[in-house]
């Protein structure tokens, strides 16, 4: 008995149960459940460890017009003396949408190429949307651009990231003037600084506002209210199930 | 009136006058004494013709606007942040309040994005989709009516205002019949609709279509050929196609520049490819062209509404998946709209599992697999996009709305600079900004 290893004690990878969602890229590790972090854990769910993963890089073929867009973009970047792998760090195809993750120093060139190349012609930028991933170290702040080609009837997404310690991304106003207000809004809410923007000031919040409200570490605020005799806590103090 | 309110203050930027009404003589007198003609006028944020709390900062030289800037943010309510603290279903209650004149478009864009993340686009029942289209097209009518009505009023044409709001009220009556509310409906939900159409709706819709067909030509008679109306609108607020593309302007502004770009045709959603309608364009690039396009779009929307009525077949209005579908159907009780008594009887009296299921789904909500989605719909103002990010939890990780009002309002400076100050009002009205959508 003693020379036989106990299979239940052996924690090599093949003996561990498979994780749901091994694929993709981890952005956070979620511990516990029900948001109850203090006090005794009687449910046992407090020990739950789960990694939160976003869809990972796709392999060719991407399907649909995505391959054509990717080929044309890579070709056009090569023509300009840029190795595509240096500019496009990752290509994700998820839920029928194509996303290029762009190195921020090459964003301006990539956007200009996407707009001007006759085979690409993404004339319309629908602005930038910021996303804050506080636990994705070194890539906390994301800028997400959706580009629409009216000529070819296509939509793609560009995503750039910047670390919290150096929240700088080049401004696309010179390529897409419509991004003027959108970049001001993203700066206002996330503190992402768009280098080269003509007048990067707050747009929604008052000029003297402190902090960046849409960041995850910025509290929502609110006060508890009484309803039918019970105190209902403020929305950000309520139980969360994540 | 007190002179203290109107007395000029000296600042480093020049003399500041606070105009409170009735003291124009004093301002004009002081301005005449000043050594230059340049005056900066602060219009808004409280001003009847600035469409809510829009602040226009106009630098004028005589009657000519030399520089125009917008100040926005006065109606910022943090809806996008708030969404991150509610379940996915509760999100509709917030997004419907963004652009409060186009609530169904906000709800539809949000719900389509959530459904895309859930991967259940194919499971949405046909009836739910048809009712969504029906509501969106009625909403397009009501939004355009407000635009034309308030735009007319700002020109002094109060009859158009009365007519526009008269017809909008008829549509809001239908909304009230269907959803219980005139605005802020939260009726379109992830997975389908909050409830089915109440009895008698189709008859009322037919009556509405009939009335609207009679009323819409009245706008033509009143305004389209009216020389004063044309003189005020033609060549005002000029923005050509190049300007539209650079500034990201969509909707009637883009179509008035001659490009027939309508997401319902170019990137169809909700089965719009199966409906028969035209996309009107103009080549005038001005406020008058936008007005004509809005009029024609209302007629086209009526066509779509008629097709929707013809296609309505009985059936479910929510996905069959019980892990997503709201557990209860609403019913009208003695104290208003609420959970149906049958449902409460079932979960409280007969089925413990159903009670647990109801409780979990309503308090915790459903989980949405991690990822991001962008869904755009053609709102009356242009491309309304919802960028929704999930981290796999029961709440949105991030929701961003690309509101067409916000983007289109950027073109105000391009439309107004070099023009007359009176034309600023016309140009802004033709953009049709709604500050609830701009500021969110």
UniProtKB/TrEMBL annotation, chain A:
Subcellular location(s) of the protein: Cell membrane
Reaction catalysis annotation: a quinone + NADH + 5 H(+)(in) = a quinol + NAD(+) + 4 H(+)(out)
The keyword Transport is assigned to this record: yes
Domain NADH:ubiquinone oxidoreductase 30kDa subunit: 101-222
Membrane topology: Peripheral membrane protein
SUPFAM superfamilies: Nqo5-like (SSF143243)
Function description: NDH-1 shuttles electrons from NADH, via FMN and iron-sulfur (Fe-S) centers, to quinones in the respiratory chain. The immediate electron acceptor for the enzyme in this species is believed to be a menaquinone. Couples the redox reaction to proton translocation (for every two electrons transferred, four hydrogen ions are translocated across the cytoplasmic membrane), and thus conserves the redox energy in a proton gradient.
Family, per entry: Belongs to the complex I 30 kDa subunit family.
Official protein name in the record: NADH-quinone oxidoreductase subunit C
Lineage: Bacteria, Bacillati, Actinomycetota, Actinomycetes, Kitasatosporales
Automatic annotation (TrEMBL), chain B:
Function: NDH-1 shuttles electrons from NADH, via FMN and iron-sulfur (Fe-S) centers, to quinones in the respiratory chain. The immediate electron acceptor for the enzyme in this species is believed to be a menaquinone. Couples the redox reaction to proton translocation (for every two electrons transferred, four hydrogen ions are translocated across the cytoplasmic membrane), and thus conserves the redox energy in a proton gradient.
Catalyzed reaction equations: a quinone + NADH + 5 H(+)(in) = a quinol + NAD(+) + 4 H(+)(out)
Name of the gene encoding the protein in the UniProt record: nuoD
Keywords attached to this entry: Cell membrane, Membrane, NAD, Quinone, Translocase, Transport
Name of the featured protein: NADH-quinone oxidoreductase subunit D
Keyword Signal: no
Domain NADH-quinone oxidoreductase subunit D: 155-440
Residues annotated as signal peptide: none
Topology in the lipid bilayer: Peripheral membrane protein
Top-level taxon: Bacteria
């Amino acid at each position: 008995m003693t020379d036989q290893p106990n299979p239940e004690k052996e924690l090599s990878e093949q003996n561990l149960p498979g994780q749901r969602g091994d694929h993709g890229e981890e952005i956070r590790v979620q511990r516990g459940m029900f948001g109850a972090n203090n006090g005794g854990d009687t449910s046992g769910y407090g020990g739950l460890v789960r990694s939160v993963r976003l869809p990972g890089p796709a392999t060719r073929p991407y399907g649909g017009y995505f391959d054509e867009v990717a080929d044309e973009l890579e070709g056009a970047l090569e023509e300009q003396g840029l190795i595509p792998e240096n500019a496009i760090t990752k290509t994700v195809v998820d839920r029928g949408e194509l996303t290029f993750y762009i190195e921020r120093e090459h964003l301006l060139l990539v956007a200009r190429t996407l707009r001007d190349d006759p085979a690409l012609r993404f004339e319309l930028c629908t602005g930038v949307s910021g996303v804050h991933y506080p636990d994705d170290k070194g890539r906390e702040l994301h800028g997400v651009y959706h580009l629409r080609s009216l000529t070819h009837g296509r939509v793609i997404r560009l995503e750039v990231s910047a670390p919290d310690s150096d929240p700088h991304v080049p401004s696309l106003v010179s390529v897409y003037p419509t991004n003027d207000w959108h970049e001001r809004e993203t700066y206002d809410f996330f503190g992402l600084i768009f280098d080269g923007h003509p007048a990067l000031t707050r747009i929604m919040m008052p000029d003297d506002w402190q902090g960046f409200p849409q960041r995850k570490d910025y509290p929502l605020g609110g006060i508890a209210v009484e309803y039918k005799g019970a105190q209902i806590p403020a929305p950000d103090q309520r139980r969360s199930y994540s | 009136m007190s002179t203290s309110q109107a007395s000029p203050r000296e600042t480093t930027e020049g003399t500041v006058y606070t105009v409170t009404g009735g003291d124009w003589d004093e301002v004009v007198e002081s301005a005449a004494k000043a050594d230059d003609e340049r005056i900066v006028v602060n219009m808004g944020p409280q001003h009847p013709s600035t469409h809510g709390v829009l602040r226009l900062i106009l630098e004028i030289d005589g009657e000519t606007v030399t520089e125009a800037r917008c100040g926005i943010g006065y109606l910022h309510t943090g809806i996008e942040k708030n969404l991150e603290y509610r379940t996915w279903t509760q999100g509709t209650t917030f997004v419907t309040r963004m652009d409060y004149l186009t609530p169904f478009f906000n709800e539809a864009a949000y719900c389509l994005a959530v459904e895309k993340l859930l991967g259940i686009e194919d499971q949405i029942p046909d009836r739910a989709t048809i009712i969504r289209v029906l509501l969106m097209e009625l909403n397009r009518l009501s939004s355009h009516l407000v635009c034309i009505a308030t735009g007319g009023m700002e020109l002094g044409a109060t009859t158009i205002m009365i007519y526009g709001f008269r017809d909008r009220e008829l549509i809001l009556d239908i909304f009230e019949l269907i959803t219980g509310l005139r605005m802020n409906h939260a009726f379109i939900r992830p997975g389908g609709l909050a409830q089915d159409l109440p009895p008698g709706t189709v008859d009322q819709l037919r009556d509405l279509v009939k009335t609207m067909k009679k009323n819409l030509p009245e706008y033509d008679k009143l305004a389209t050929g009216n020389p004063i109306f044309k003189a005020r609108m033609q060549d005002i607020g000029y923005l050509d196609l190049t300007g539209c593309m650079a500034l990201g302007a969509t909707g009637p502004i883009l179509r008035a520049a001659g490009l027939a770009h309508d997401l319902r045709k170019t990137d169809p959603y909700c089965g719009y490819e199966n409906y028969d309608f035209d996309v009107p364009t103009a080549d005038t690039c001005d406020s008058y062209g936008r007005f004509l396009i809005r009029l024609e779009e209302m007629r086209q929307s009526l066509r779509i509404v008629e097709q929707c009525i013809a296609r309505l077949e009985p059936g479910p209005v929510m996905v069959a998946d019980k892990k997503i579908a709201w557990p209860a159907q609403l019913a009208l009780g003695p104290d208003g709209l609420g959970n149906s008594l049958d449902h409460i009887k079932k979960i409280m009296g007969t089925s413990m599992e159903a009670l647990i299921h109801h409780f979990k789904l309503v308090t915790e909500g459903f989980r949405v697999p991690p990822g991001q989605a962008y869904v755009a719909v053609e709102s009356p103002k242009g491309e309304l996009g919802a960028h929704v990010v999930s981290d796999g939890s029961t709440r949105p990780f991030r929701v961003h709305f690309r509101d067409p009002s916000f983007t289109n309002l950027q073109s105000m400076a391009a439309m107004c600079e070099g023009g007359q100050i009176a034309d600023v009002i016309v140009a802004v009205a033709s953009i049709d900004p709604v500050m609830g959508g701009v500021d969110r």
